[in-house]
UniProtKB/TrEMBL annotation:
<dbReference type="Pfam" id="PF00929">
    <property type="entry name" value="RNase_T"/>
</dbReference>
<feature type="domain" description="Exonuclease">
    <location>
        <begin position="35"/>
        <end position="228"/>
    </location>
</feature>
<keyword id="KW-0269">Exonuclease</keyword>
<dbReference type="InterPro" id="IPR036397">
    <property type="entry name" value="RNaseH_sf"/>
</dbReference>
<protein>
    <recommendedName>
        <fullName>Exonuclease domain-containing protein</fullName>
    </recommendedName>
</protein>
<dbReference type="GO" id="GO:0003676">
    <property type="term" value="F:nucleic acid binding"/>
</dbReference>
<dbReference type="InterPro" id="IPR012337">
    <property type="entry name" value="RNaseH-like_sf"/>
</dbReference>
<dbReference type="InterPro" id="IPR047201">
    <property type="entry name" value="ERI-1_3'hExo-like"/>
</dbReference>
<keyword id="KW-0378">Hydrolase</keyword>
<dbReference type="GO" id="GO:0000175">
    <property type="term" value="F:3'-5'-RNA exonuclease activity"/>
</dbReference>
<dbReference type="InterPro" id="IPR051274">
    <property type="entry name" value="3-5_Exoribonuclease"/>
</dbReference>
<keyword id="KW-0540">Nuclease</keyword>
<dbReference type="InterPro" id="IPR013520">
    <property type="entry name" value="Ribonucl_H"/>
</dbReference>
């Protein structure tokens, strides 16, 4: 029981499957990927935007989405301890709902990356997934609402702190760009994108895990509407 509680604390407990029955029937187009790993980081932030410190990740969430069924198969969530600016601004707590105690009892980003890598390795074994284009297995790649999470936030923080991250974080699908190109309109945020499709954002905005779940729900709807999802971004294209 103690082992299970420790695993849950570090985001390693697989979530019970949640079905999103958005597609009546199985007429959606063939996708390049079988699964998407949907991420949405929360970081330190301040109300005044100019001359502020570089952001540090304080919530590291991810959900594994099955593109064939529209189900969220597993979740990861870990609060992360900022070290460059260890005290959260009142603006940050009000925006994200993340408290000072949550980050103080969190783990350093390097430890979080180790825990996350362990989690995704187990899922790759369980679902026979691979990020590689040459190895056998079901294809998976990362997805985020914009390029900020992987192209700026994680990348720059790892550079500053001299941390090594998995190579699969260097290439991803920008859901916002895919949405804009497919529906030919610019959404007003994630909640606005859902609203434009007659859907409602569920939960608290700017909670990383909640944002990731809602992004996964939106992706499922896009697939049902016939959107072919493909990689849009890489660190090469963002630098």
């Amino acid at each position: 029981m103690a082992t299970k509680r420790l695993a849950k604390k570090h985001g390693l407990v697989q979530k019970r499957r949640i079905e999103h029955p958005l597609c009546p029937g199985t007429g959606q187009a063939k996708q390049e990927f079988d699964y998407l790993l949907v991420l949405d980081f929360e970081s330190t932030c301040w109300e005044v935007k100019s001359h502020t410190p570089k952001p540090e990740i304080i919530e590291f969430p991810a959900v594994l989405l099955d593109l064939q069924t529209g189900e969220i198969l597993a979740e990861f969530q870990q609060y992360v301890m900022p070290v460059e600016q260890p005290i959260l601004s009142s603006f940050c707590t009000a925006l994200t709902g993340i408290t000072q105690r949550q980050v103080e009892t969190g783990v350093p980003l390097g430890t979080c990356l180790v825990l996350f890598s362990r989690w995704i390795r187990e899922l790759c074994k369980q679902y026979h997934m691979t990020f590689s284009t040459t190895l056998p297995g079901k294809r998976v790649t990362t997805a985020t609402w914009s390029d900020w999470d992987l192209g700026i936030c994680l990348h720059q923080e790892c550079l500053r702190k001299k941390l090594k991250k998995p190579d699969f974080f260097n290439i991803w699908l920008d859901v916002r760009l895919s949405y804009k190109n497919f529906y030919r309109r610019s959404p007003k945020g994630l909640a606005g994108a859902l609203q434009d499709l007659g859907m409602v954002f569920k939960g608290r905005e700017h909670s990383g895990i909640v944002d990731a779940r809602n992004t996964a729900i939106l992706i499922s709807r896009m697939v049902c509407d016939g959107c072919i999802l493909t990689v849009t971004s890489s660190l090469t294209s963002c630098t």
